[in-house]
Each structure stands twice: as structure tokens, then as C-alpha cells.
Design brief:
Structural class: alpha/beta
Largest sheet: 6 strands, parallel
Number of helices: 18
Strand content: 5-15%
Strand order of the largest sheet: 2-3-4-5-6-7
Distance between the termini: 72 Å
Amino acid sequence: MSTLTRPTDTLTRDALTVLQPGFVGTSAPDWLLRRIGEGLASVGLFGRNISSPAQLAALTAQLRAERDDVLVAIDEEGGDVTRLEVRNGSSFPGNHALGAVDDTALTRDVAAELGRRLAACGVNLNWAPSADVNSNPDNPVIGVRSFGADPLLVARHTAAYVEGLQSAGVAACTKHFPGHGDTAVDSHHDVPHIGVDPEVLRARDLAPFRAAIAAGTRAVMSAHILVPSLDSEYPATLSHRILTGVLRDELGYDGLIVTDGMEMQAISATYGIERGSVLAIAAGADAICVGGGLADDETVLRLRDALVAAVRTGELSEERLADAAARVRALAHWTSVSGAADRSGGAPDTEIGLVAARRALTVTRGASCTAPLTEAPYVAAFTPMANIAVGDETPWGVAAELERLLPGTETGSFTGADAGALALAEAGERRVVAVVRDAHRHAWMAEALNTLLTSRPDTVVVEMGVPQSPPQGSLHIATHGAARVCGLAAAEIITGR
């Protein structure tokens, strides 16, 4: 049994302090406000909590009325993963587009503007950027969320992003340590394995995290991935060897370590969220992210009580929990001192996202390329299943933007073996714009494109994922992401605007 050296109420406050829960609704429920009063120091926001900037600002003000230094976190990567603009699509291209441009000053400026918008709404912790090196082209969950497949490119843009975001007073949370890029499994569903030796991992996957630490990232998020060369038993989130041995001791990181969502199947289906949370804190994590799926008071109480019980039985040291809570409070203090005001200098740049999206385009004109479209086309969107990180709420494609430029544009969404034939039938005599996302990962999508191009070689193809397949069509546009501004930039090329 453990001998407690502090009062039970202090232990309970520490257990609450290390939690980053979510909730349902666009205003804070009474239970959440009550837990903040009892010691909860962080709240995570998701798309379901946001309807407008004004509403979000009112919500964060409501939280701060209970605790002025509360950490308000969000998963706002820009690009495909957006919570601020979940219903319309992001005003900022994502990492892959920024990596395609490869201008670190642009990346820094984009991140700074995104940080300004978050700070203006009262958000002070962003679970971004993704520092994963997308070394596996079949990766189902990272893809365009990565700056690219070159570790040095990813490293320099990760550092630039951290600097830009934090210049606005918003703490960066670099993810997913030790790197989620070389996986073919989504940790939302199962435990991915990365079977490389330590030398490859250190040279490739850890390079962006070294750069982020050198740039001063205030937080790092762990990945629910198994790396047998580092720890054959526990995934990184639960691994003392990885979180403490590698991240703390080897890389010299002294900031906040946040877990990825504990309700993801890689943890919840194997350890359960209570035991998983205890193991994570014991391994060196400081904050438990939960709330993407489980978003209620019962979840908070279950995790709080599990941590308190683990200290009482000696499974978790009292000192480790106190240290984790102290790191949370230290980050809260940093954000409080930094304030919500714009610290990056200069006027807001509302066009920086579109400027970046335009620069990110790769345009290939085929032999049958004709003049820009002047009549309303038919947009055939070949739609894969959305991964959970992106979600299916956020619109993507070019149809909405083409409709604004060419009124009368029609669109349809197609999937499966007959997608190409069905798209041809719906298009009729209209010019076709085919929109795909990671065509190289979906055999049915590649076949649909072949069917379409065989009958209609004048088809325009827009690839909004990772452009691994050879360019096809009379005009091929790789946007390197599916943000709203990427669709707008593509539509401008298609129409010659």
C-alpha cells in the first residue's frame, strides 16, 4: 500500500487536473463547470461544440468565468481536419499542401494566422501540428495531414508551424509521438505496429519531434502505436521506455505530454480507458485526452477515481501524478501570461490560406487539354470512407466553388465497382470534372477514373489527397488536400479565373 503524504482533496484535484475531457453542446454543461471548480484544468472542444466564432468566444468566456487559466484545447490542423469550420471547410490548406510549397515562411505565416483566429475565440491549446513523416503511401489516417515523406522537410515545417502558432499565444501540441506515418492501420480502430529498427526510427520519425522541441513546442501528443524495437509490450502512450526514456531522457523534452484520445480502440478495446489512463500517467504522460466519443460527467469521474485508486494501491506513484498535474498548471500559466491577444505583430492576413492553397497546386495539362471551362460541368466526386480524424461532416471537393463561378454546375457522389459507369450516366453530355482522394489507395476509384477517361478523355481530374498516381485527364490538378480553399484554388484553374 502507498503512504499518502497529501490530503485526499489534493490528490483528487490532481487527478482532475490531468484530464482533458470533452462535452456535448455549444455551451458548457453544469457538470463541467462544477468539475472546473473542483480542479479540472483543461477542456477539449470538437466540431459539435462550435457553431460560429462569436458562439465559441462566448463558450470559452463561460469556462474562464469558472477558472481564468483553464486550458481550452482543440484539434484544428487546418486542411482536412478542422473544427472551427467543420461545416464549411477550412480557410487554410493542411500540412501536405504547405509541404508541397516548401516555404517555411509561408508555413509560419499560415500557422500564425490560424493561431490568431483561435486566440480571438479564446482557444489556447491546439492539438497540432502533425509531425508524422508519411513514409507509408497506404497510410489510412495520416496522408495529407503530414507535411510529406521527407524527414528533413517535415522537420523544418513542423518547427515553422510551432513557431507561428505559438507567436499568437496558442500552445502547439506536436503529434503523434514517436511518429504515426509508417502505419497501414488507423489507431482509431486497432493497434498499429511499426516494425523498423531504432536507427531508422531515430533518423526518420524522430527528426520532426527534435525540431519541434528545439522550436519550443509547449506540448507533445503520444501515439497509440506499438514500436517493438523500443517497447515490445506497450503502445507508445502507455510506454515508460518511449515517453520517459526516449521523449524525456533522450530528446530532452520537458513540456506537457498529452495522450491521443483514450477512447480510440487501440487503447479502449485492449486496456480500457481507466487502466489505460493509469498506465499512461505512470509511463510519463501528463494529460489524458478523452471526449471525442465519451463526453460526459461519468467518464470524468471514472477516470478521476481510477487515478486516485491507483495512487492508494501503489500502482501509480503519488509523486508522478503530482508532477503531471504541475506540468498541466505550468502550461495553463504560460497561456494565461501570453494572453489571448495577438502577439505575432502585424495586421491579420485573411487571404493567407487561399494564397497558400494556390501556391500548392500542381497542374498537369494533357494533350487533349482545351480552353478553360465556361459552361457548367458535371462534378463526379469519387468518395472514399472518411477516417475518424477527418470526419464526414466537413464538405470537400470543387462542386461548391465551381457552382459559384459557373452557376448550374451539378454534382454527384459515387463509390464502389460501378462508380465510373454511374457517373457517366449522370453526367450526360456535360463536361466532367472527376474529383478523387488518394486514388492510389482505392482500386475501385482508379477503375472508375479509367472508365470515365476511356469514354470522356476531356475529363478534368482533381486529386485532393496524396498525389501518388500518374496525372490523368485533359487537365489534372493535385491540390494536396481537401480544404475549402484548395477546392477554390482548383476551381480558379478549371475556369481560368
